[in-house]
Amino acid sequence: MLQPKNKTITIGDDVFEIYISDEQLQKRIKEVAEIICNDYKDTVPVFICTLNGAFMFMSDLMKNITIECEVDFLKLSSYGDAKLSSGNVKLLKNIDCKIEGRDVIVVEDIVDTGLSWKYMKDLLLGLKPKCLKIVSLLVKREAIKYVVNIDYYCFDIPNKFVIGYGLDLAQKYRNLPEIYQLKSGS
Fold first, then answer.
1. Catalytic residues
2. CATH number for the domain including 61?
3. Neighbour-count burial of 96, counting CB atoms closer than 10 A to its CB (0-12 exposed, 13-18 middle, 19+ buried)
């Protein structure tokens, strides 16, 4: 059984250690939400959550958004059950709202290679939004392979595998309240 707040978690031969605490997450999410609210105070943006990984981030972000807004969801798959991206992105659920002429902010859990963002950007720009931006919980800049202009983000992290707070390993461990990073040597 997983015990949240453990300093380390062992999964098979891999050891993960807490990298970003729940308190650090909540503090930074509130700061980023305030910036977004200031930037969009005169509009009603649509926040599009990328499932499944960004659901916890989206929930906490929305609790701190104080302007009128709408919410929708998009589901992609690029990892399967592996620790590395498959290099292929599949659309599993498209958005339901109309975004033509609207300000759109995509809520992403992590930008690593940038492939998923490239796919989403091409898909959503085809629907003619007025403005398309991204807010990402995590950014692995050293792993980025595609051009990605990250408008808002919470944390830069090294190119190590992470789980918790919505991020998974084979669809598990999303329920951890903090972010764990694969320990060096694991």
1. 112
2. 3.40.50.2020
3. exposed
